[in-house]
Design brief:
- The protein is of the alpha+beta class.
- It has one domain.
- The protein is built from two helices and three strands.
């Protein structure tokens, strides 16, 4: 019985951690959306501060690029 209680506590802890991570991603996406909606002009040239604020990393592969946004979303081009 004690082993089952410990197992269930471990599962509960895992779920709580997963929920916290998911909430963090949701908040980052919300912040990014709010920031983008606050932009009043259309971009016509490269904007270094904007890129640094939105993109975490760009990975170059042989036939495509993977852009990793700070929100946790990845896009392949």
């Amino acid at each position: 019985m004690a082993e089952e209680i410990y197992r269930l506590r471990g599962l509960k802890q895992d779920v709580l951690v997963e929920n916290a991570e998911r909430e963090g991603v949701r908040q980052r996406i919300e912040e990014m959306t709010k920031f983008l909606k606050g932009q009043t002009h259309q971009l016509e040239e490269f904007n270094d501060p904007l890129v640094r604020r939105l993109i975490e990393k760009i990975t170059v592969h042989e036939k495509h690029l993977t852009i990793g946004f700070k929100s946790g979303i990845e896009k392949q081009i």
